[in-house]
Amino acid sequence: MRRTGSKRRVGGIVLFDAPAEPGPPRVAVTAGRPVGKAVDRNRAKRRMREAIARAPIRHGRAYVLVATPAVLDAAFQDLVGWVRSAVEVEDDR
Questions:
Q1: pLDDT per residue rounded down to tens, the chain (93 residues)
Q2: For the purposes of burial, counting CB atoms within 10 Å of the CB of 92, is it exposed (0-12), middle (13-18) or buried (19 or more)?
Q3: Contact 15, 64 (CB under 8 A)
Q4: What's the pTM value of the predicted model, to 2 decimals?
């Protein structure tokens, strides 16, 4: 994905995207140890999954969302805005 796709950082998330097989979009969500303990990482991933569900993502694409510690403290509407902004930049290409 890193060789054929692109990477963007918006707010407290990093979004990788690349072309994928035709069909529904593929989405992966990850939060590493810098985010916090397991409870915090799981909370960050749940918040990002819900944010991506509210964003307009395209079919035929693969997305990987990476959390930073800012995801835990951000207002949910800010998180949704970050995801939308990252995906919209991808749509403009």
A1: 556 788 999 999 999 999 888 999 999 999 999 999 999 999 999 999 999 999 888 898 999 999 999 999 999 999 999 999 998 865 444
A2: exposed
A3: yes
A4: 0.84
Give the chain's count of helices (H) and strands (E).
3, 4
Q: Which amino acid is at 88?
A: E
Phi, psi of 87, deg, nearest 5: -75, -40
Where do the structural domains in the chain lie, given as residue ranges? 6-91
Q: Which class is domain 6-91? A: alpha beta
Distance of alpha carbon 56 from alpha carbon 71, whole angstroms:
20
> Which pair of tokens denotes residue 84?
């939308």
How many Å apart are CA 57 and CA 51, to the nearest integer?
A: 11
